[in-house]
Amino acid sequence: EYMRQDASVECGTDEHKPITNLAIVFIVFWPIGSLVLYTLLLAACYKPLKKKKSRTALTRATRFLHREYVLTYYWWEALELLRKIVLTGLVVLVPEERAFLRLVIATLICSCYAVGLAVATPFK
Length: 124
What we know:
Layout: H1 16-50, H2 57-61, H3 63-66, H4 76-90, H5 99-120
Helix pairs in contact: 1-4
């Protein structure tokens, strides 16, 4: 069996292993890196957001992350991203033979999030 993108590389060979390792690094890095980036950007925006009149270039550039939320919950978008990562990435790590467990975990996560959303009411 050969790689789809490069038919000269056969799967399972020494030439294929570095490509696989790099792919694994990016598969892990992308969701975690996105979450860390969102969190750091939102943390950097906190003080300027508290001072409503002194908006900075950073708060304007990252407005898409916090404009839908009341100031108290300016960080909610990072929580939303974490929920999505858990539902689409971590739940899949549960073995396929335990499909019902996947459903239970996903339902619990969504239920807890819905309760948190109802209690916190973060949207403007």
